[in-house]
Amino acid sequence: MVTSSAPGKVYLFGEHAVVYGEPAVPCAIEKRARVTAREIDEGLRVHVDDLTLDGYTVEYTGEDDGHPDLEADESLVRAGVGYINEAVAQARAVADRPDAGFEIVVESDIPLGAGLGSSAAVVVAAIDAASRELGVELTPEEIADRAYQVEYAVQDGQASRADTFCSAMGGAVRVEGDDCRRIGGVGNLPFVIGYDGGAGDTGELVAGVRQLREEYDFAADTVGAIGDIVREGESVLGTDDYDSMGELLNFNHGLLAALGVSSRSLDAMVWAAREGGAAGAKLTGAGGGGCIVALDETDGALTALRYTPGCEDAFRAELDTDGVRRE
Amino acid sequence: MVTSSAPGKVYLFGEHAVVYGEPAVPCAIEKRARVTAREIDEGLRVHVDDLTLDGYTVEYTGEDDGHPDLEADESLVRAGVGYINEAVAQARAVADRPDAGFEIVVESDIPLGAGLGSSAAVVVAAIDAASRELGVELTPEEIADRAYQVEYAVQDGQASRADTFCSAMGGAVRVEGDDCRRIGGVGNLPFVIGYDGGAGDTGELVAGVRQLREEYDFAADTVGAIGDIVREGESVLGTDDYDSMGELLNFNHGLLAALGVSSRSLDAMVWAAREGGAAGAKLTGAGGGGCIVALDETDGALTALRYTPGCEDAFRAELDTDGVRRE
Questions:
Q1: Within an 8 Å CB–CB cutoff, is residue B283 touching chain A?
Q2: What ipTM score was computed for the predicted complex, to two decimals?
Q3: Is residue B260 less than 8 Å (CB to CB) from chain A?
């Protein structure tokens, strides 16, 4: 029996613009998914605890056509099960054990569907745990690539390499097109996260930006300006100049708002964090709802978020320099 | 005795960027300042009613060193009195009557200090009323120019030609540097205004944008993108394509937020207006607090604003095609 874990992520800079070839900087956070894999005689049995905030448990045996008996939202379960199925398939392939049976237990501290990379973390940890259980130890880079293949398959080709790479490698990473690399020398970043309990429709949000960008030159320029913020941000990463970094976060948020991907609750949380004393704050991920990330060494932003109507959950989640690891 | 009135204004597009030579489009609104001028034997007597939301009355005789006896904020009164003094001086100069005495009564529907051009409207109406009372009829262009001289003197050289030109001419105007002209063919714009009861520090906000623009190329690009929005907006003005115009308002607001001139209450009002059904909404003026302007033909945005915490006042104020006029 092997337990592996992998971190979730926030986008420090560059979401949406990354779709158009600009660089982006996702960062792993100290919120992890843990996956335990135990080889069994045949089939696949999955236990999923606390994958959502409310928690539910799935137990089933079989392949894609297995219908677990539970009350949780079926599409959510189907998606979760899809990720585990595909992750296990990767482990079977690397070990050349196509018929290996598995009991898989998933636990996660990462709110599901909040744009914090929960699915990538589960997939990365599952590939690591299941392949180790079959006696194969993959490098983080190999896991990142295989996890991307899983997300690509489950998400109908709409996956980004950023989430899986960041989760597998840990720390701050730089993504530009298919080129992903870890940014060295980044020790700590005092992230505070606010979550409105919801999520935007990623496809719709991406399409909205595309439409604006095609219609207006100034929208294309705005996408380019986000890329410039990322390049500027890279020179500040690795320092503890949180004021400059915060200024860049704030600017990045405004440009995302201009591109139509903020929301009332995201803006309210961003202001709460700033007025609570954060060096800066922005939405993270696709937007339209979900999470904001703030930089704050004090308790101010966290307290302000906890008293902000519409903020369902607020927590500290510092930069996690560890990627996937055996527990 | 002559009564003249002149409208306040909102910035449909382009505030802040106009400082760097980009065009801007202020629009006169159906909220007016009315000034009554009556020639008296000597000196200057001023009655100011409802110039602020709470209202106060100033009555005094004499020049700048006159100290009216009242409970209103003294710096506010001093500023208001300065505008009237200088406006009356313009009327005395055009009529070549340096010693003409005046009783002046000022009434205004325009919230003071909210960024809606209340001082420009008072100055414009005062110059018109006082010069007519002395038998001289100035063109709106002449009044605009003289009103600008007044604002320039009272505001220590920090005046923009936009407010006084817009108030004198009415309608939608285009400002680019010192070049101001009226935009023809704009019939109606269904403005809804939300006011948070506060005001930002204009000098500080302008300085903040300047600093960002000097430090970061992407901030300079953002200022340029606002100029592009204005040029795009000009092609939509004169149509009733409020959806496109609203899209431009929303984008303009995001870019202003990126430049650091929005605020928690301004963002809250902007979202209330949008979710209430407005085609679009943005802050208007220097920002940091004050007013937002939304485009909405229905009552939705107005209702939403009235139920928004932090919105002190909300009202409809459509485009006013009349500039300064005798009542």
A1: no
A2: 0.89
A3: yes
